[in-house]
Design a protein that fits this description.
single chain; 182 residues; Uracil-DNA Glycosylase, subunit E; four-stranded parallel beta sheet; 7 strands
């Protein structure tokens, strides 16, 4: 291997940034991921990796056929009063794994909730989203969660190898209780 072109341990790690929130005035539930993975960033779509279970789980939870187009998938969220965003505004990361995140910066949730007061439920897509929220939002932004219902859902990422039906059943139950209570 040519030593001149070999990567060095000091190589600069690219900063990855999240997309803006998908939200409407009717949104009642905010689903939070951690930070888009490589495939999502390339496609410029939330949960853009074809093996990610997010979109099939949302469709199954509401008894819908999985929309093919991204715009139709976003419309499906709107019909069910679901908003979508990420905990982290940006971070350095090699690849897509949350375990590789360095120097994270959280989104401004105080401003978000001030602008979207109808959202009363916060759902975390996996433990890492919750972990980063607790560390960089609850502790640093003094974000009050006392009037927000919190849901912890299994990660839809292909890196979490739980069976689809197991994940879908937990999501279906949580979404049914939330949307039904709104």
């Amino acid at each position: 291997m040519d030593q001149v072109n070999a990567p060095t341990p000091d190589a600069v790690v690219e900063v990855k940034a999240c997309f803006g929130p998908i939200v409407s005035p009717d949104s009642r539930l905010l689903i939070l991921g951690t930070l888009p993975g490589e495939e999502s960033l390339i496609r410029r779509q939330y949960y853009g990796h074809p093996r990610n279970h997010f979109w099939p789980i949302i469709a199954a939870a509401f008894g819908e056929v999985l929309p093919v187009s991204y715009d139709d998938r976003i419309a499906m969220l709107g019909r069910h009063r679901i908003a979508l965003w990420d905990v982290l505004q940006s971070a350095q990361r090699v690849g897509s794994l949350d375990s590789k995140i360095e120097n994270p910066i959280a989104n401004d949730f105080g401003a978000f909730f001030a602008g979207h007061p109808n959202i009363r439920t916060l759902a975390f897509n996996g433990n890492n989203a919750h972990k980063f929220f607790r560390r960089f939002v609850e502790k640093k932004q003094n974000f009050p969660l006392n009037q927000i219902r919190i849901l912890f859902l299994p990660a839809t990422s292909p890196a979490h190898a739980r069976p689809f039906e197991e994940k879908a059943a937990k999501w279906r139950e949580a979404l049914a209780s939330t949307i039904g209570a709104s």
